[in-house]
Amino acid sequence: MIQSVYFSPAGTTKLITNHIADCLSDILNLPKEEYDFTLPEARKQTLSFSENDLIIFGMPVYAGRIPNKILPFIQSQIKGNGCIAIPVVVYGNRNYDDALVELHNELKANGCYIPGAAAIVSRHCFSDKIGAGRPDERDYTQIKKFAEKIAKKISQISSKEALPALSIPGTNPPEKYYTPKGSDGKPAVFLKAVPEIDEEKCVKCGICSKVCPMGSIHMDSTKELPVIAGICIKCQACILSCSTQAIKLTYPAFLSHKQMLEENFMERKEPEFFF
């Protein structure tokens, strides 16, 4: 069984993980299932796989690492049980830093065998200019070739235990998170920033409360307006899902960091694959 498993607030990790899973499903002629653990309710249960499963495990990169609020779920509630897993990280054209080696290590510690891994570029969730249109046709061509090589490698191994160790860039084990910088080159601190809601534009549809991966947006029963009261991981899910553009993140340090990214990370980066 091919299992597409992912955390994807902005939607691109879901797109990429499913595409890799679909390619492998076609090549290996195996059925595919999908598990989305983006929302809090989906992270209340343990995901237990079998030795016959092939898992494509997709995660977005936040500050050069796996999102720290989701890491405990991966560490405690993913049970590989001897399955084969392909760690995939998706990043917005800046850098994936230590995210892929971190995800690789966690899946291996959870009882998964890993024949390959990938770091794929997508549009940056902070800006529609950085990585615009990614993944594109060129990316998908490379992803298909990756899936073909993975399928061939799996079919040729004598045993899972015989799989050679992968050489993945990054500090191993990871030690630090990337420090966002502003347009002045100094650290930009916006951990406590939360999106603002324009009451005149808000149509009270409640979609933002349904897509928040932290469950931090609630509808105010007295005003029928969304209220942000809880952890914000800056994933942009609420902003991207709002049909009237009533939600924005206008915190000065965040906007300065966004400007810095747009000034320095527009040059195309290519996906990277490891076998």
Question: What topology does this entry show?
Answer:
Blueprint: E1 2-6, H1 12-28, E2 32-36, E3 47-48, E4 54-60, H2 71-77, E5 78-79, E6 84-91, H3 99-109, E7 117-121, H4 137-156, E8 196-197, H5 207-211, E9 217-220, E10 225-228, H6 237-241, E11 247-248, H7 252-264, E12 272-274
Parallel strand pairs: 1-2, 1-4, 3-5, 4-6, 6-7
Antiparallel strand pairs: 7-12, 8-11, 9-10
Summarize this entry quickly.
By secondary structure, this protein is α/β, with parallel strands linked by helices. The protein contains 7 helices and 12 strands.
Mean of pLDDT: 96
Distance between the ends: 21 Å
Give the radius of gyration. Answer: 19 Å
Strand content: 15-25%
Number of helices: 7
Largest sheet composition = 6 strands, mixed
Query: What is the general shape?
Result: globular
- According to DSSP, the number of beta strands is 12
The percentage helix is 25-40%
Q: Output the structural class.
A: alpha/beta
- Low-pLDDT stretches: none
What is the H/E string? EHEEEHEEHEHEHEEHEHE
Strand order of the largest sheet: 2-1-4-6-7-12
